Every structure is written in structure tokens, then in C-alpha cells.
Amino acid sequence: MPDSDPSTTAARAEPDFGSVVMNAHSPREPGIGTVIESSRCTRAKATGFVRHVAIDVSQTKLAGAFRAGQSFGVIPDGAGADGKPHKVRLYSIASPSQGEDGAGNVLATTVKRTIDEHWNDHRLFYGMASNWLCDLQIGDQVRVTGPVGKRFLLPTDQAGHRYLFLATGTGIAPFRGMVMELLAANHSADITLIVGVPYATELMYDEQLRALEAKHSGFRYLTAISRHEQDDGGGPMYLDGRLSRHADAFRELLADQRTLVYLCGLAGMEIGVYLRLAELVGPDGLTGYLHAADGDLGDLGQWDAATIRKQVRPGPRLMAEVY
Ligand code: A2P
């Protein structure tokens, strides 16, 4: 098709994300926030520890300056074993652009405690920053920086799009904020959220998301449990398995050129999701979501992790934040 074809142009057009503030506070001049909430955001019997930490940033330049989908920085107090002060760590903002308080003065994040064994001597490995943040008590102060992030954002024309949000683990954080923001602005916003976790007990914000789904007919909340059977039948699955399981609905959603796809979570999730996208929309429909570094996506059937890393880039209607 020639480039002047309007349908092709629409498929290639990047949505307008509007303006963003970047680094209102740099790591050299952090702002001082205050923790106002720290609560478990998984069910009581979860195997991991994930906390919803809300920070009052009203006395910082982050106030009113962050947007859903952006990240902010935290500089843990103290110094490392080498005596050097801790460096900034980035955390996804889990709040809508209006903040937890509706006025942009409180932002929240979703922090998982990193606890593991050292691979060499099996001693306990205790992630410094995540545990420091999770240990903070109400009233404690925290040095904050940012915000950062220019593209993992909602478009300015929110009502002009349909949304597919795909999260693994704490990748749910930005989508909590985005879903809250979209539904507050438009009661019937068309949003599908798929969350992948190992067990149902690890689902974060599950009650809140189920309540939103019950209230808003355009919001679908689907889960993919990777180490257990699904509530609605079927064996363990990764979130891309959900795309296949409801293939007809997703084929329709993805063929719509208003649809924006967002991925957040483990880097490995890209492979499965990209392969399913290719299966569902075919080579022509795929150009809106993915393109090739050298102009040729090659034989989709032959994609593997290495090819995807080397060759596949997000297209105009796909936003990926993976780590
Ligand atoms: P699993 O660990 O069972 O392989 P968390 O961060 O809480 O561990 O959750 C991450 C979720 O993402 C888990 O359910 C994990 O499954 C799943 N996961 C791991 N690798 C992939 C992948 N390549 N694609 C999709 N999901 C994945």
C-alpha cells in the first residue's frame, strides 16, 4: 500500500503523549517526601512480600509534575559496604497523574522485597533498596528524584483509544495508575488488563481491580497464573496464553487501529507476547505494534529470544517497559 493511504498512515502514527516533566529533582538535589501509607498489596498468604508505599511529595517539585506510567527515584539513606552513599533506584509510579489524593501531592509505588540466597555461598541475600523502602514507617522521610519516562504514558486523546495492558508481577504498578485515571475520566473506557503472577495469592491490588471491573463494563481484568490451574479452568499459563485463550476477542481488539498495547514487567515476557501478537494480527496488522531494526521482521515462525532482541522494536502503538 502506498504511504499516502490513510489506513496505513493511521497504523503508523504514534499517539500524542503530551508534555512531561523530567527530573524536577535530580539525584544531586533530591526532594524530601514523607511516607503516609505502607500496606500489603497481596493476599495474606502470599509467598512474597509486596507493599504499596504512598509518599507525600507536596513539599517537593514532584508535586503535580508526575504522570501515570512515569517512574520516580528513591535514594536510600546510608552507605554501602564500600562506604559510598547509596545511589538512586527507580520505582514505577502506581498512581494516576492526579496522585493518590486527586491533587498530585501523593504518589505511590509497588515494591517487592528482594530476598534470595547468594549463588556462591548460599547466604541470605537481602535486596538493600527494596527492603529499605518496605521497612519505612508512616512519617519517615525519603529522598525522592524524578520523574522520568517520556513514552510509557497515556495519550492526550484518552477517549480516542482502546487499551491492552499486559503486566507480569510488579509490572502491574503503572497500570493501576492508568486504569484509575482512564476510568475516572471516562466511565466506559475500553481497557483490558492481563496480569501474570505465579499464584493467585500474589495478585496485587486484586480487590481494587475486581471492584473496578464490577463497576465499569468496558474494563476487563484477566489473570494468568503460571504455577497453578486457572480459576476458570485450564492449566498453568503465562499471560500470553490468555491472548490465545480468548483469541477471537483479542483479534478484534488488536485489529482496531485505535488500540494501544502496553507491556510492563519481566523482559522475558516480550517474546511470548510478540509471537502471539503476530499470530493474532498477521504481518500487515503487526506494523502498528512492531517493526524490525533493519526493516524486515523475517519469518515470524522462526523468531527466538535472540532474534527478537536484535531485530524487533516497538511500533507506534506498542509501549514496553521491561526489566
Ligand atoms: P514463573 O515464575 O512461574 O515462571 P513475579 O515477579 O511475582 O515472580 O511474577 C512474574 C510472573 O511472570 C510469574 O508468574 C512468572 O512465572 C511469569 N513469567 C516468567 N517468565 C515469563 C515470560 N517469559 N513470559 C511471561 N510470563 C513470565
Describe the structure concisely for a colleague.
The chain is an alpha/beta fold.
What's the layout of helices and strands?
Elements: H1 6-12, E1 31-40, E2 50-56, E3 71-75, E4 89-92, E5 106-112, E6 115-117, E7 124-126, H2 128-135, E8 141-148, E9 162-168, H3 172-185, E10 191-197, H4 206-215, E11 219-225, H5 239-245, H6 247-255, E12 259-265, H7 269-286, E13 290-292, H8 305-311, E14 312-314, E15 318-322
Parallel strand pairs: 9-10, 9-12, 10-11, 12-15
Antiparallel strand pairs: 1-2, 1-8, 2-5, 3-4, 3-8, 6-7, 13-14
Helix pairs in contact: 5-7, 6-7
Bound molecules: adenosine-2'-5'-diphosphate.
Adenosine-2'-5'-diphosphate binds at residues 168-169, 196-198, 202, 226-227, 238-239, 266, 268-269, 272.
Characteristic terms for this protein:
single chain, 15 strands, Elongation Factor Tu (Ef-tu), domain 3, globular, 323 residues, binds adenosine-2'-5'-diphosphate, 6-stranded antiparallel beta sheet, alpha/beta, Rossmann fold
Describe, in plain words, how this protein is organized in 3D.
The chain is α/β, with parallel strands linked by helices and 323 residues long. It has 2 domains: 31-148, Translation factors (Elongation Factor Tu (Ef-tu), domain 3), CATH 2.40.30; 151-322, Nucleotide-binding domain of ferredoxin-NADP reductase (FNR) module (Rossmann fold, 3-Layer(aba) Sandwich). Helices cover 25% and strands 27% of the residues. The strands form 4 sheets. The chain has a 6-stranded antiparallel β-sheet with strand order 4-3-8-1-2-5. It has a 5-stranded parallel β-sheet with strand order 11-10-9-12-15, sandwiched between helices. The chain has a two-stranded antiparallel ribbon with strand order 6-7. The protein is globular. The two termini are 36 Å apart. Residues 1-11 have low confidence and may be disordered. The structure holds adenosine-2'-5'-diphosphate (A2P). Adenosine-2'-5'-diphosphate is lined by residues 168-169, 196-198, 202, 226-227, 238-239, 266, 268-269, 272.
